[in-house]
Specification:
This protein is an all-alpha fold. It has helices at about 15-25, 30-45, 45-65. The chain has three helices and no strands. The longest helix has 19 residues, at about 45-65. The two termini are about 20 Å apart.
């Protein structure tokens, strides 16, 4: 089984949570980082904080992807 991930971008929190829950309920394996990301994102209290978190998370993913250790 491949450990590849498929990025999914949504136009809003409600759609993102619906997709997350649908995938999770259908038995598609989520990585621990997917679960943490979903929980942290959900905990943000407004759109500005969710957008800031999403941007920082994406920056972190890019650093990891471009790291010589990956």
């Amino acid at each position: 089984m491949s450990d590849a991930s498929l990025p999914i971008e949504c136009d809003g929190q409600e759609n993102a949570l619906r997709i997350f829950n649908t995938l999770n309920n259908r038995g598609v394996s989520l990585s621990m980082s997917d679960i943490f990301k979903g929980l942290i994102y959900q905990s943000k209290n407004n759109k500005e904080n969710r957008d800031r978190f999403a941007m920082k998370w994406k920056e972190l993913e890019n650093k990891i992807t471009n790291s010589p250790l990956s």
